[in-house]
Design a protein that fits this description.
With 392 residues, the protein is an alpha/beta fold. The protein has two domains: 134 residues, Aspartate Aminotransferase, domain 1 (Alpha-Beta Complex); 249 residues, Aspartate Aminotransferase, domain 2 (3-Layer(aba) Sandwich). The protein contains 17 helices and twelve strands. The longest helix has 23 residues.
């Protein structure tokens, strides 16, 4: 039995589905899910003890494990349900004025793109998207395309670490460095980064970094975080105004945590299970798992190009060390094609509409095997022969 097959037994995923869509909502291993349920049961056994008297210590312990994983001070981290929530905390807080500009790209996650459009429209600011064409050939091309749209009115740079629709690793370190030199606030959407690429948030130096733990970090659904540099924390206002430091718990380590950590009664078990997810990855040598996944994805890319004529939107001459890759399709009814792949072949893989293009985004996680990817090749070969209407 292969290492991937061994890992498959540790996940709750259906055995009759080739699950190649980890990038959408992730998948939680059984040991981590059991830890999550233990926390839920403990909460329900004595809710007042758990949420009132133990809350601060429990959250501090979970933040400490996450901080060590992210190379960040745990008191500069706050748990949120997902990266979209974290991005909204930042966007709703920043003091944008009429004429100010928020600079981003045409590769951003649709919900975040919509968020900035709405916030800018409300405040008379301008949302500017740098057009980065595909295939992307180098990090320098990305940096220059973004920086070419910077103006004296640019106040915020909002950039994905790993792009959701196109599955590209953007050179955020260089972009953050340039922005800080110009006094531009930096907001990084890292929804797909934790657990997929190494992170050192303090060294990166972004003013705000939003991440998910329930995707590639394997935590239960509803576990995300916001990291804020200490000097930028006073800019942030909570989306939900609750007790903060005025309640029964009293002042915490900082106003940042007081305002954003306690937001009324909610299930904090997903946050408390994050250390179990980190431990699971350590126990199963996740560096080696990631390497196997990238090798599987590279082999699939070679077959997809040779047998199907599909090319990734990132050039293979530049190593994009990810477990997720997007391939350009002929424009098609993506929802129908995605549904057909599931109904006919039991393959779960997204077909994404992006800037007038259709993209097949393939995710490979530790539970996937070559059989899953071979099944996708066979299904697409059948599609080319028999479902022309789905592709053209």
């Amino acid at each position: 039995m292969s290492a991937q097959e061994d890992l498959r037994d540790l996940f709750l995923l259906r055995r009759d589905v080739a699950f190649l869509n980890h990038g959408s909502f992730g998948a939680c291993p059984q040991p981590v899910f059991k830890a999550y349920q233990r926390w839920q049961r403990e909460l329900e056994a004595e809710p007042v003890e758990f949420l009132d008297r133990r809350f601060e210590a429990l959250m501090a312990e979970a933040r400490s494990a996450l901080g060590a994983f992210l190379s960040a001070d745990p008191d500069d981290l706050v748990f949120v349900p997902n990266a979209t929530t974290a991005m909204n905390v930042v966007a709703q807080s920043l003091p944008l004025a009429p004429g100010d500009e928020v600079l981003s790209t045409n590769h951003e996650y649709g919900a975040v793109d919509r968020m900035w459009r709405l916030v800018c429209a409300e405040r008379g600011a301008r949302y500017v998207r740098a057009e980065i064409g595909v295939p992307v050939r180098s990090e320098a091309d990305v940096v220059e395309a973004v920086w070419a749209r910077r103006t004296p009115r640019t106040r915020v740079l909002s950039i994905s670490h790993i792009t959701s629709p196109t599955a590209l690793l953007f050179p955020v370190a260089e972009l953050v460095r340039r922005a800080r030199e110009e006094g531009i606030l930096t907001v990084v959407d890292g929804a797909h980064a934790p657990g997929q690429v190494p992170l050192a948030l303090e060294a990166l130096g972004a003013d705000f970094y939003a991440g998910n733990c329930h995707k590639w970090l394997l935590a239960p659904k509803g576990a995300g975080f916001l990291h804020a540099r200490r000097e930028r924390q006073p800019l942030l206002r909570p989306l939900v105004v609750s007790w903060g430091g005025e309640g029964s718990k009293g002042p915490g380590p900082s106003p940042f945590l007081d305002d954003h950590q306690w937001q009324g009664t909610r299930d904090i078990a997903p946050f408390l299970a994050v250390p179990a997810a980190i431990q699971f990855m350590e126990d199963h040598d996740w560096n080696a798992v990631r390497a196997r996944c990238r090798a599987l994805l590279t082999a699939f890319s070679e077959r997809a190009e040779a047998e199907l004529g599909l090319r990734p939107v990132g050039e293979e001459t530049k190593p994009w060390p990810l477990q997720m890759r997007a391939f350009a399709l002929t424009p098609c009814d993506g929802r129908a094609l995605q549904r057909r792949l599931f109904d006919r072949w039991r393959i779960e893989v997204p077909v994404i509409a992006w800037n007038g293009r259709s993209l097949l985004r393939v995710s490979v996680q530790g539970y996937n095997t070559r059989r899953d990817l071979d099944a996708l090749v066979r299904a697409l070969q059948e599609g080319l022969r028999t479902w022309r209407g789905w592709w053209r």
